[in-house]
Here is the input.
Amino acid sequence: MTNTLATTLQPTLVHTLRMPIRWGDMDAMGHVNNTVYFRYIEQARISWFDEIACTPDPVGEGPVIVNAHCSFLKQLKYPGEIEISTFVGPPGRSSFEMFHQIRMVGADGNPGTLHAEGGAKIVWVNFPAEKSVPLPPAICKLLPPGKLLPGK
Here is the structure.
């Protein structure tokens, strides 16, 4: 893991999702388009949110992302199956960091090879007020103990 959160705070694995690479995920260069990696990460994030009953409520509160990043390490190509591992960092007042690793699974010649890693900062918001609010205790219990670095 190369991002700052991952190397300084030892994030906790919370979810793993497998999904196929679809033919339509590829671009004219014959590999998965860079924008699709963000969709893979989004699906992993939403799958974990669904699993922990953390679905955003447009008339109440819920999670939003305020930034996202991805490092593309090795091309993904159709056909194939990927596994997205989702990690979380410790809670702040109203936010926490998520980190993802995308690996090939199956018979691609090198199963388990890291193809991309990325993440996002998640902020808990009151949607009608359009303001951040403290993370709910139930969410904080799912996050590893520790403190975020200044500015996180």
Remarks:
- Confidence is low (pLDDT under 50) at residues 1-5, 148-152.
- Residues 34-51 form the longest helix (18 residues).
- The chain is about 20% helix and 35% strand.
